[in-house]
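Section 3.1: Structural characterization of target chains.
Under the original work plan, the team committed to producing a structural model for every single-chain target entering the pipeline before any wet-lab resources were allocated. The record below documents one such target. The sequence was received from the expression subgroup and is listed exactly as submitted; it comprises 140 residues.
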Amino acid sequence: MKPPVLNSLAVFLFHLISDGGSENKGELQKWIDKPGMFWKKLIAQVDIIQSNSMIEAANRILKHEFLFLRDIKNIETLNKTMPHILQEYNNRPAGMLFGLTPNEVLTGKVPDRNLFKEYIKKGNMRRQKINKKISCEINC
């Protein structure tokens, strides 16, 4: 990647990686383009090969499973709520981490897709056994 220099007068100290969504244009672009700003916006998978899909997935979970379920009317309420939300999010097992929590991964545990393989296999067998014992009044 070339150094972040637009011309001899403009040096970018910070990069903002975003997707090409409309929320990342308009006011955001006006802010980045202001004189004296040292930001350069990079579009994931256009300007760089990396994707921001992992953080987009985390943001989606935070919004739909936590924020949208609460009555947050102002920034003060949001600031009081976020530490609790982040504590819960970072300490609950995540499927994308194969059952580990984000905090476990941050402290060095390596996600292993086979970690719970035997438990899942035994659970499936147990469930099938239970399901076979259930009488069904309709055609199952």
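The chain has a mean pLDDT of 84.
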